[in-house]
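Hey team,

Filing this mostly as a record. A colleague (T.K.) asked me to run one chain through the structure pipeline before their review meeting, and I want the input and output archived in the tracker in case anyone asks later how it was produced. No errors, nothing strange. Just documentation.

Input sequence:
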Amino acid sequence: MADLAKTNKQGFGARAKKFLRETKAELKKVTWPTRDQLIHNTMIIISFIIIVTIILSVLDIAFAELFQFLTNLV
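Output structure:
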């Protein structure tokens, strides 16, 4: 509880400095991917986006044609 009261009384500069120091310490703990892993994962994501784009485009065209067909019947 005493730490909370002490933290609340620190100035903005001290809190910002502490935040940056703790952020730097946390980033040192991160296991960063290798270049090959990064390229591989990026290619998987791009492939997935292309596949989803194609599927959604086909569905959009199909529903547009269906809507056009149904509105011409009336």
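Quick notes for T.K.: The mean pLDDT is 90. The chain has three helices and no strands.
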